[in-house]
Amino acid sequence: MAPLTAALCLPFGGSRWGARISVAGAALVQALALALAARVLAAGPVVAAHGWLQADALGALLACVAGGVGLSATWYARSYMAHQEQGHDAAGWTAGRFDALFHLLLGSLVVASLANNLGLMWVGIEASTLSSALLVGYYRRPGAVEAAWKYLILCSVGITFALFATVLLYYSGIGRFAVRSAGLQWTTLRDLAPVLEPRFVRLAFLFALVGYGTKAGLAPMHTWLPDAHSQAPTPVSALLSAALLATALGALMRFHSIAVRCVGPHFSENLLLIFGLLSMGVAVPFLLVQSDYKRLLAYSSVEHTGFVALAVGLGSPLALLGGLFHLVTHALGKALAFLVGGSLKSAMGTARMDRWSGVIESSPPLGFLFAVAGVALAGLPPAALFLSEWMVLVGGLQAGKVAAVALALALLATVFAALAFHWTRMALGRPRADFRDPLPADSHRPLWLLAGALVVLGVWLPEPVRRLLSQAAAVIKP
């Protein structure tokens, strides 16, 4: 309720109080998500609202991701949006309305993460589409409006497929539910999975793969993602890429877990393997030739989302653990990359990478953060994404899927080469004489927290985090 309450209050607050309410609301969401995760580790799943909501390990993990990224982006947005609205016409939109929509998006992601009822989960994902579409088109420029409509239409078509998947899954258990309303409860469907109708379960997973896969940015349903990420305000891009894609993948994993228990692992795992490798392969050429920084990060999100799908498709316990860890580490790395990129874009007046040079010399603090983001997204140590990718690849070898691992490794090497080329050219070279970061130093504090988390998780995985990841993996595949 915290983000929804904040969303109701923010349109009526002044800029000073609105910023405070916004950050306080996001901080409360993250604190509650962490407390919920601790409760799940101590006592198991937490059920609320007569079974409509349930916080298991997977839901708590996704809520922590959404809360952490939401807090970082909201904190950063206080200064960033104030600067942006000095030079852009937001068609009369106040900062309060932006914050309200942002918290509606954050709240819908938390609801979708913690929903035990598949219908409520669908409503949460759909609500995120509506609120984020308004945020994508926030500046009301022609490109932003076009991107918002493209996002709204494609994701609405996708979410319709997800609705069909939900109906088919309910239909597969007709006559097997003690109470009709329990037929949409994920826990009920999971427990009854061995006696559900296999044909409808297979069809439901196919529809979910297309529907929630569209929302997650899996290829070939990813075409909305580069436009939306490049046109949205930077804090919105960070939340979309880091948290929204993770939440959609979590919804797909719920359907996968039922399919595994009903028809065996091979059907859904093979499909996830194919779509994961396809997403990585589709992203590679666009990463090589991209000239816009935010579009580069968008195609990087397609690649990393595909890698998580690949991890689930590999199916071994270590690959699942690594895939969920990669979900977390990618969220941290991509949020950092978008937010530090927002500062650099403000300082240089453009998002074109061929006009960025000498970042490290121009601003050593921003240059260091920029370098950490690049190292993380390229999958280099000591950043945590190196560890998560290593776990997935070793897990794939343990599963005996050598060809898939070899292809993934080749694609990862190409991604590394592309990002190394772009980052080296931007970070080094002759500094621009007109470089000036207009944002105050305190707006960079959440960036330092993200960078610190990436490095710490790369060298040390705390026991509570490892246990939460292990339990979340067991939710997906027992």
Automatic annotation (TrEMBL):
State which residue ranges cross the membrane: 58-77, 98-115, 151-171, 200-218, 238-259, 271-289, 296-318, 365-387, 402-424
Statement: the UniProt record of this protein carries the keyword Hydrolase: no
> Which residues lie in coiled coils?
none
Which keywords appear in this protein's UniProt record, sorted alphabetically?
A: Cell membrane, Membrane, Oxidoreductase, Transmembrane, Transmembrane helix
Q: Which Pfam families match?
A: Proton_antipo_M (PF00361)
Intracellular or extracellular location(s): Cell membrane; Membrane
Query: One MF term from GO for this chain?
Result: oxidoreductase activity
| One Gene Ontology cellular component | plasma membrane
Record-annotated NADH:quinone oxidoreductase/Mrp antiporter transmembrane domain positions: 115-407
Specify whether Translocase is a keyword of the entry: no
Q: Which domain of life is it from?
A: Bacteria
The record's listing under PANTHER family reads: HYDROGENASE-4 COMPONENT F
The entry's protein name is Hydrogenase 4 subunit F
Taxonomy, top ranks, is: Bacteria, Candidatus Eiseniibacteriota
